[in-house]
Structures are given as C-alpha cells and as structure tokens.
C-alpha cells in the first residue's frame, strides 16, 4: 500500500466549483488522491471541516520595484511571506520595461536573481516601453524563458514607457497564433493632467473617462484583430459597464478583466484626509457611485489581482502628486476582503481563472490529482478585525476593517509555509514557466 507524504483530512475540499467532504493526499509535492477513505500517510493535518482551497494566484505584484529614488517596501523574500499569509502560493511579477529584444535577457536575469529568495512559486510578465523591434522575434524570445504575456502602457510618455497603437495592433494580430496575451495599463494620456497638483486632485487629474475611453479602444482592437487582451487594475464601474454593454461576447474568450481590492473598498474621499497621500496609486480610487457599480458587476470581473506596490509613509508624505511614488499594498488581505464582500463566488477569481488566463492551469489553480500541491486551509466562519500586516510597509490601509473568514494554513507544493497562523517554512519557491492554452 502507498504511503503518502501528507494527508489533509476532514476537509471541505473545493474541486472545480464544488465542495466535497473528504481527504486530500499529497506525495512529492503533487496532489495524488481525493477520497473519503483513510490511507497511510507520513504526516496528517486535520482541516477540522474548514475549506480546503487551491492555493491563490496573484498575477499582479510589484516586489522590490524601483520608482525614481524609492524602492517598494516589500522585497521578494518578505513580499512572498506576506503573500503566503494571505493564502497566495504563486505570484506573477514584472520584468523591467525593455524597448528592444537585446534588453530582454538582462531584464529577465536581473529580476530572476532578485526573486530566487521567494518562499512561494513565482513567474514574470514581460514589459515593453516605446518598443522599437520585431514583435514576432520578441515573442519567440520571451516564450523561450517561460513567459507568455506582454505588459504595455498607454501612457507615461514622459518616462518613455508609452506604447503606441501601431505596436499594440501588431502584437494583437499575432497574439492568438503565437499564444501570448497582452496586458494593458489603460489610461488615455491626453486626458491626464500632470504636474505639481495637491493630493486631493488626484482622481480629477486621471478621471474615469481617462480609463473608459482607453479600454473601449483596446476592446475594439481586440475584437477586430481576434487577439488576446488582459486589462489590469480596472478601477471604474463605468468602464466595466461600458465594456459589458458593447463587448460582452469577448469576455473570458479574448478579453479578460482584472480588478483589485482597493477599488471595491477605498474611495477618492480618502484623498481629502490628512494622510491622503498614503492612498495614491494609478489608476486612482474612484467615487462611491463607481465603487457601487463595480460591486454590482463583480461577476463580470475575471480575476482579482492586487497591484501590490506599497512605499513607506515618509516616502509618500509629499505635498504634490509629482513627488509621490504611486502604489499601495494589499496582498495579505486580498482574498479576505473580497470573500467578506462576495463569499464563495470569489474563489475562482483567485484560483482557476488566473491559472487558465496566465498559462498555469492545470499545474496551478485546482486541487485535481496531478496538480501542484498548493493548498489553502480557510475558515469561512471566522470573524475578526484587521489589526496589522506582515508587510515591511509601516501602515495598513485596511487596518480596523471587520472581515469574514481567515487563512489558517498555506501549503506550497506540499510544504507548509504558514501553519495554523505561524510562519514555519523557509524553503525557496520555484520559477514557474508558463504556456498559454486559451
């Protein structure tokens, strides 16, 4: 009889959209069996009737990101621990922007060297900036490195990062054939007002119209060219409603929508606070009406990422927006926050959906036998108040919020990282090569 490495018993196991009471068996870092029977195992963990979920995937983080003279507060080591406390067993960060193929190898090697200290698994998106090279050859090169996604910006000309519509068009035309997905930071640059403006004007300077006009342009291009497009950090209920009105047939086939916890919980009213600078990010926080619209249409959001990129309070405590490094944190409580608001319907947006969209499924995002043993034990009945964060950042924008449910234990490839609320694992995660299979 087989002796498994680990048995997770008495669990409410989430398998492909349904909960099954039973036991999950792991061997050599792989899920081997789901059964109501008891089998011999070297180690046994009692889930005590709690949810047994696939490890969460955050496809949008910025660890150790240099912005001007500042670097985001969480490096890959601490950031991965913060992620694990939130149940995240795989994250996808970004290579530094490149303008040609020659710069790609350095960007990849540098980022991978920094990321090797992560305690959970990780991957990368490539990033282009004012790209001036052959698109097909670039795609061939990123795929050799296990990357199947290309991030671009429709703004930031001032730092030479903007990608023009011609390049976007060229990439969209070949994206399906070459099995890559484009990832867009979508703001209409001509509608952005930049300069020495006070924090309270942040949302006015980058209004909803700025986002909506750009995502609709990209959606139309995606439809016309039958390509693959992933819109990151959608901030506006209006943007989402317009997309669904005009391009519903594309959703989760060609066009995929990501939003983030901050756009469901925090509003532009925070910019009026004395410490409003702490809430600055792009796209900015929106009105209460926009938040309500976004909440109503949660079913149309494919994925929840975090855009985790906090900076220390002294770095953000500036009087004008041009001096503030943009970005906030949220990776530790992202699932907790969205589960509190939406319940079980949010699970696939942290697991199966990002795994499929970003070329990780079925290795990640599911508890089916043969997948990596990335597992989260989650108590859906727990009620608590957010008190602190394990982030290196010296503040937590969600502190004091009452939330439902709690991540108890996080397992990465059969290894306990967080066990009953305590950090116990310090082994290193793996770089995960991705292959698009949409």
Quick summary:
With 438 residues, the protein is of the alpha/beta class.
Give me some keywords for this one:
single chain, 438 residues, alpha/beta, Urease, subunit C, domain 1, TIM Barrel, nine-stranded mixed beta sheet, eight-stranded parallel beta sheet, 25% strand, Metal-dep_hydrolase_composite, Amidohydro-rel
Helix and strand arrangement:
Elements lengths: L3 E12 L2 E10 L2 E6 L5 E6 L4 E4 L1 E3 L7 E2 L2 E2 L4 H10 L2 E7 L9 H12 L5 E7 L7 H10 L4 E5 L11 H14 L2 E5 L16 H4 L2 H18 L3 E3 L5 H11 L7 E5 L2 H4 L22 H9 L6 E2 L8 H4 L17 H9 L4 H4 L1 H6 L17 E11 L16 E11 L2 E5 L2 E2 L15
Parallel strand pairs: 1-4, 1-5, 6-9, 9-10, 10-11, 11-12, 12-13, 13-14, 14-15
Antiparallel strand pairs: 1-2, 2-3, 5-16, 7-8, 16-17, 17-18, 18-19
Helix pairs in contact: 3-4, 6-7, 7-9
